[in-house]
Amino acid sequence: MNTKIDDRLPKEVGQGALPAHPAVQTPWNKLISYIDAYKYACRHHAGMGAVYQEVLRILIPDYEKRVDLMCKVDVGNKTYVFNKMEVAPGVLYKDIHSANHFLHPFFCGTENTGGFRAGCFGDSGDERLFMQGRVNDFGTYRVEKELDACPWDIMGSEICRVSTASLEEIGRAYGEHCEYSMVEARGCGDLHCRVICENRDKYPAPPRKGVWDNFGPCMTEDQIKFTPREEMYDRPQHMRGECDYKYRNGLCMELDSTQEYVGGAVDYPLGSDYSLNPINLMIKQGLTTQEKADQLIASLFRACGKMMFLDSFAIKGLRDWLGVPEGVNDGRVLGGYIEVLLQSIRCPYTIVAFNKDEVTYDIDRKYFNRKMPIPMTSAYNAMWYGMVKTLVSPEWSVWEETEGVDESIYRVKIAMKIDKFCL
User: Fold this and answer.
1) pTM of the prediction?
2) pLDDT tens, 261-314?
3) Which of 132, 106, 103, 115 is nearest to 220 (CA)?
4) Residue 140: exposed, middle, or buried by beta-carbon count in 10 A (0-12, 13-18, 19+)?
5) Angular region, 2: left φ>0, alpha ψ -120 to 50, beta rest
6) CB pairs under 8 A, 24+ apart, for 60-67?
7) Tens digit of each residue's pLDDT (9 = 90 or more) over 16-45
8) How many C-beta atoms lie closer than 10 Å to residue 82's C-beta?
9) Strands of 55-173, DSSP E
């Protein structure tokens, strides 16, 4: 028995005795349901992205300059992926992407249908990311998607513009005539997000100011179909019995809930990339320094971590969610939260120590950073440090240990520490 780790019931104990249900298990054997873990992971990604976005707002205070850079960076990435990236010699990614979405040959060669194809991809992505809604129009010359929810609605209107520009660029990989507008956005205070694609040959419109200027006008406003609040969905297709707990588009593409979870909650932290890619480009172009970006990331995430549990009701809420025993008030509380996060995003980790004096985890660094241009470990180091100060006590600290640790491992330690220069 490992004396550094408090006794806990392993997940495999009791298998077969009771019906099995997918869930995340806390150190105190509290189960967090599949749907709650899914929603938590998506919203968590949005929260991380919101703080990274504040870093970018400090680096580029002017709204139009900032959102213009964000859109151009993401559009450039989509241009490469859909027009140049090969998955095999002579096989473009965009062709495989079309096949995976069951896009039929009868319109795949038609120049006018770029909007249609991007609409198929967008609809699939929305449901996967817990952005449930409905397709109100899926025609050759017009596509309308209405969303009832968006976990990323806290990130600000820049994100709404970037996601619209990104979807439009995917459409242009298949046809040059589509133009997307987000005429309503939850991130701007609307009840729905409403994305409308119009074929500009059929529906001419005034020229835009730039790639970011995509909130309208809409030339087919009279065709909008509005869903009242009482008829809105509270979960995506693959979590509704009426859909047999599967995502299906109008072209017979079908994905089960497990596939959707991996694509939405696990594969990459959407939202963070919208902000981190422009920050990384600014560093490469000498418009800011790595040191400046690191300082801003650490400062903002540290402060956000402290604010998360500033009030007693927030502490109680997390303890109840995790099932923390009444007598436990040390680093294990934060450790339980970290384990829920890692399990929710399916990130491999090993428990090195878990007791009243010390909590230490070895985390798979490559997976945890998930191909982000700036390692996410620095943000989490700062945020967890801030969290433990109010969640437990200022006597406790969080830091990364590197001495004697393999480069592939991100070792996080939670313990008491006296630091006369603490932040």
Assistant:
1) 0.94
2) 988 888 778 889 999 999 999 999 999 999 999 999 999 999 999 999 999 999
3) 115
4) middle
5) beta
6) 60/282, 63/158, 64/210, 64/212, 66/158, 66/278, 67/157, 67/158, 67/161, 67/162, 67/212
7) 888 888 999 999 999 999 999 999 999 999
8) 22
9) 86-88, 91-92, 133-138, 142-147
